[in-house]
Write a structure and sequence with these properties.
- This protein has helices spanning 8-18, 52-67, 76-79, 90-95, 97-102, 138-150, 169-176, and strands at residues 71-72, 107-110, 154-157, 188-189, 211-213, 218-220.
- It has 221 residues and is of the alpha/beta class.
- The protein has a three-stranded parallel β-sheet, with helices on one face. Strands 4-6-5 form a three-stranded antiparallel β-sheet, with no helix packed on it.
Length: 221
């Protein structure tokens, strides 16, 4: 059977949609297309979290690395002097990094290397964001970390934010006024407690953990 095409009425209806003014188009009005309303969806940031099994595996890997790490703790100031000024420095430590790798070291633990009057072996810190100029510059420190990582070594550092020098801006502000925002960052007392002599860390250098501060007119510890 030969195909005769769609019914005449269908063709006319299609012609009305395509060419409304054509003489063969029907006179019936074509309904106007309806507007399509798409509901607005609130956009939220997409957060992709790995499965709990993956997170657990990462934690286990880190724990295993920590438990099997070979940690070496050099005193940068006394380890290797690169410029002959009598102080060890980060440049000297970089020069010896291959030696540490051959020893099997996987992690270098840095003692405080921040600017300090050095009255407490460097723990009396004046700037937690700085590098003691005797030990080098920020660039020297970054270069050391990069060099250590290139050899598969992690770098950790002592960050003792609860121990500052009396020259630190926090303490300078705290001692200046009872209303200083840093006042409560330190412990003050009008009179040292009766157990003040207890807990002395360096009995050959101090008789109490409390010190009277003339500016604050109080004792601090």
């Amino acid at each position: 059977m030969a195909y005769e095409g769609p019914p005449q009425g269908t063709l006319r209806a299609m012609l009305k949609l395509v060419h409304p003014t054509h003489p063969e188009a029907p006179n019936t009005a074509c309904p106007a297309p309806r507007s399509l309303h798409i509901p607005r969806v609130e956009q939220r940031p997409l957060t992709i979290r790995p499965p709990s099994s993956v997170r657990a595996g990462v934690r286990a890997t880190r724990l295993a690395a920590a438990m099997n790490a070979v940690i070496y703790c050099p005193d940068v100031e006394t380890y290797q002097d690169s410029n002959g000024d009598g102080h060890g420095d980060f440049r000297g430590l970089i020069q010896r990094i291959d030696h540490l790798q051959r020893l099997g070291v996987t992690c270098v633990w840095l003692m405080p290397y921040y600017p300090s009057p050095d009255r407490d072996d460097g723990y009396d810190i004046t700037d937690f964001y700085g590098v003691d100029p005797r030990l080098g510059s920020h660039g020297d420190f970054v270069e050391f970390v990069r060099t250590a990582r290139d050899r598969g070594m992690r770098v950790i550092a002592d960050l003792v934010v609860n121990h500052t020098s009396d020259q630190h801006p926090w303490f300078q502000s705290a001692r200046s006024s009872p209303n200083s925002p840093y006042r409560d960052w330190y412990v003050w007392a009008d009179e040292p407690p009766a157990d003040g002599p207890q807990g002395i860390a360096f009995p050959d250098q101090e008789t109490s953990v409390w010190t009277y501060d003339e500016v604050a007119d109080q004792s601090s510890t």
